[in-house]
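FYI - complex with 2-oxoglutaric acid, inputs then prediction.
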Amino acid sequence: MITEEQARFFDENGYLRYGKVLERSEVESLINGLDRIVDFELAGGDDSSPEFSVGHRRKIKETEDEPRVLTQYVNMWKRDAEYEKTVRHPLITGIAKKLLKTPEVRLWHDHIISKPPQDNGHFRFHQDFYGWPLSEPRILSCWLALDNATVENGCMHVIPGSHRDSRFFPKAKKREEDAAAKDPTFKTERAKMEERPASFGVPVELSTGECMFHHCLNFHATPQNTTNKQRRAFVIIYYAQGVCYSDAQASAHCLVPTIKVNSGEPLVGSGFPAVG
Ligand SMILES: O=C(O)CCC(=O)C(=O)O
């Protein structure tokens, strides 16, 4: 399933270009499911869970012409059986467990991230961890290509080893933010990273049905899709046993209203299922 060398590569670099996990027919089922959700959302959508309305436009209006970096559909697993099967895929969850060194993984959330032609931009270097209300960085994403992902259409670009660079750890972030609050001219190391073009990172090109994994503290970015075709990815985020809900970080995240445990308690519950 995964070799010791691959696991070591992930430890050192914070990402792993794994390779094929889905057959073409399985990818086609996912794309068909996505098309159904997109049509449904354009017709008005579903607000039965708060995250369903995030990151895309229900109805494109004349005035909504501001550039956006990507289009997102959160928690496809709650909406389509093929997606639920994929987040529980034994090969994917098995690799996630091995990379996170944990006996069990839970699903934080999944999302489709697409860069439609002519309606997308450069998604700047960032570390996912700080966008989530979770207690510790024992979390990773599986980025699964539904279309061939290339430099031209906005594949992932990563900064190897950045997840182990103490300049970007939570304590350093807090120190820098305190300094920036006192001195508005102070530029944090993270802000400097955000200014760099995606080409500063290593491109991870993938074919349809292949995936890569990235650690939640690894800096990554995607450049603009400059082609005339879609670039769609299904991204699944897994966390290790014992990771807790933390309201001190990312308290406005769209999934916070669905969390049933108190801050400081392990994040469990049917919205965050143990999937492997
Ligand atoms: O797919 C993209 O364009 C960005 C993906 C990303 O930032 C992520 O998976 O964390």
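The pocket of 2-oxoglutaric acid is lined by residues 70, 113, 115, 123, 128, 141, 143, 154, 220, 222, 233, 235 (CB under 6 Å). The first strand starts at residue 15 and ends at 20.
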